[in-house]
């Protein structure tokens, strides 16, 4: 064997080629980054007017799960009606509206909520629209997967949302007069706080319809007293 052949054989033994089943370092890094992303868990809310102000109230866990199952069933969701609150309210999925069954009451808007914001003067978090929440989630997914942050988005009403990192996301309102010459809004003033997922906001969510027994007991007493 010549000296050249001997040297090539030593190189092949000391630096073997990667097997077809092995991953390159880039692929491993990419897999690790992508594994950090987990889809957000939605929760359903309805809107009530309290003290002349819109307030978003969460459905209890059981009703929210039923609404989510109806949403993801793959059937015709537009004409579907889901009873909630022990049958006291019906949610029309296509309309995204909640109607009282036994008495007259203004219908309330219903929303599948995943992203929220809250200002200094707000008592509770407000959910973004379903369509813009989807945009936020897709942007968040890319930021986590690629580990590229400081993502800036513009909402339909020209407000600015910046995803600095998973724990710091802010919402700036447009400055009055900032778009007189067609310019884009700037990040000025005190920002609102942005949160992803209902588990990251302070809100009371009941497990189920704990008041149903009392409701039906009242109906029974009313019917009984009326018949007497």
TrEMBL record:
Residues 1-24 are annotated as: Disordered. Residues 12-24 have a biased composition (Low complexity). It comes from the Eukaryota. Residues 30-112 form the WWE domain. Residues 1-11 have a biased composition (Polar residues). It holds the Pfam family WWE. InterPro entries: PA-PLA1 (IPR058055), WWE_dom (IPR004170), WWE_SEC23-DDH2 (IPR057825). This is Phospholipase DDHD2 isoform 2. It comes from Daubentonia madagascariensis.
